[in-house]
């Protein structure tokens, strides 16, 4: 797989379109300082479709940074290959701070293990800048499903006659790996059903085609609040501030279903550490804004800014965690 060359903005884009597209995220301390970016447009690549949780969070942050910096960027949605297409576009860009990536944890912590032979390696071809948010993740089923707890689901699985089926956003996706660790924790033969994204998996769960799925709260909380779905348990050791009434899977007697799902900010390889630190500092200012904290926690995401060094350590730890899961379950990408 060859790298994609960074694109350029179409001259037909009007100033109104540019401002509406993205507002402000990254015109921060680039190679020549904040002033150096004011004479150009900065591109932030979001490797997911427009209108989803990641896109919403990226645009919300950019709006606050516009107020602080008075500079604008273009948000470019580039979905495909579990985020790899957007990652390659940023990896091929000059490390001048004018092209950055807003990515999910899976691209950085799972893809490097599953795609060791790819010409694009997120572990080496991107510069970590800052964690942005950590997302709560719940195991959800349709509202009229007979299971109300993890123990109920285990009993249904063991009783049969049909196996319990849980969907995911795709083979090798972090939501798929949650299914694998749940199987270990519950000692059940749950069947994983991969989809091309969370939305179709949730549609089939609502229709009763599958029993349920793991889904980040930004995607599942609206369905829970509307009464269309119910959550059986949360991933991790602590309850979510956005959904404190949902117990964790661990506190229900099934420990081990852990591993955080997060969104973070990255630059091209060999990015100047000074630039990366300046960008991270500005992002932290925005993520400490009480309005942003309240808005994201209501969505099911917790603002979690870091320094580039601390972010790199987190990525390394998460990558080691998922590499163990992948090895233990002998998971390989389907060709």
Compile the SSE list and pairings.
Layout: H1 15-22, H2 34-37, E1 42-46, H3 53-69, E2 73-77, H4 84-91, E3 99-104, H5 105-109, H6 111-114, H7 122-125, E4 127-135, E5 137-142, H8 150-159, E6 165-168, H9 174-186, E7 191-194, H10 198-207, E8 212-216, H11 217-225, E9 229-234, E10 261-267, H12 273-287, H13 290-299, E11 301-303, H14 308-328
Parallel strand pairs: 1-2, 1-3, 6-7, 6-8
Antiparallel strand pairs: 3-10, 4-10, 4-11, 5-8, 5-9
CA radius of gyration is 20 Å
Number of domains: 2
Query: Looking at the structure, what is the overall shape?
Result: globular
The CATH architecture term of the largest domain is 3-Layer(aba) Sandwich
- Return residue spans where pLDDT drops below 50 for at least 5 consecutive residues: 1-39
Average pLDDT works out at: 85
| Major beta sheet, strand line-up | 2-1-3-10-4-11
Give the tally of β-strands.
Answer: 11
**How many individual helices?**
14
What's the CATH class label of the largest domain? Alpha Beta
Cα separation of the termini: 14 Å
CATH superfamily of the largest domain: Bordetella uptake gene, domain 1
Class computed from helices, strands and strand pairing: alpha/beta
- What percent of residues adopt helix (DSSP H or I)? 40-55%
Examine the coordinates and then state which fold CATH places here, giving the name of the CATH topology of the largest domain: D-Maltodextrin-Binding Protein, domain 2
Order of helices and strands: HHEHEHEHHHEEHEHEHEHEEHHEH
**Major beta-sheet overview:** 6 strands, mixed
């Amino acid at each position: 797989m060859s790298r994609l060359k960074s694109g350029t903005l179409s001259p037909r884009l009007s100033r109104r379109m540019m401002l509406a597209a993205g507002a402000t995220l990254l015109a921060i301390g680039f190679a020549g300082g904040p002033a150096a970016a004011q004479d150009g447009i900065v591109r932030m690549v979001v490797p997911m479709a427009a209108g989803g949780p990641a896109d919403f969070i990226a645009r919300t942050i950019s709006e606050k940074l516009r107020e602080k910096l008075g500079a604008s960027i273009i948000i470019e949605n580039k979905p495909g290959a579990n985020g790899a297409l957007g990652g390659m576009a940023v990896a091929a860009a000059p490390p001048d701070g004018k092209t950055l990536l807003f990515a999910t944890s899976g691209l950085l912590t799972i893809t490097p293990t599953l795609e060791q032979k790819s010409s694009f390696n997120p572990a080496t071809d991107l510069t970590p800048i800052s964690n942005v948010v950590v997302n709560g993740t719940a195991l959800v089923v349709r509202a009229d499903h007979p299971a109300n707890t993890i123990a109920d689901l285990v009993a249904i699985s063991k009783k049969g006659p049909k196996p319990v089926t849980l969907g995911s956003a795709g083979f090798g996706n972090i939501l798929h790996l949650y299914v694998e660790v749940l199987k270990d924790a519950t000692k059940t033969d749950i069947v994983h059903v991969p989809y091309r994204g969370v939305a179709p998996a949730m549609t089939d769960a609502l229709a009763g085609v599958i029993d349920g799925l793991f889904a980040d709260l930004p995607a599942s909380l609206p369905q829970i609040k509307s009464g269309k779905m119910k959550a059986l348990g949360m991933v991790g050791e602590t309850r979510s501030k956005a959904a404190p009434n949902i117990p964790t899977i661990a506190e229900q007697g099934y420990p081990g279903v852990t591993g955080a799902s997060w969104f973070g900010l990255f630059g091209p390889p060999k990015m100047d550490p000074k630039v990366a630190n300046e960008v991270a500092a500005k992002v932290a200012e925005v993520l400490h804004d009480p309005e942003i904290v309240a808005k994201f926690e209501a969505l099911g995401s917790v603002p979690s800014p870091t320094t580039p060094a601390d972010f790199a350590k987190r990525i390394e730890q998460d990558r080691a965690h998922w590499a163990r899961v992948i090895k233990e379950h002998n998971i390989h990408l389907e060709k």
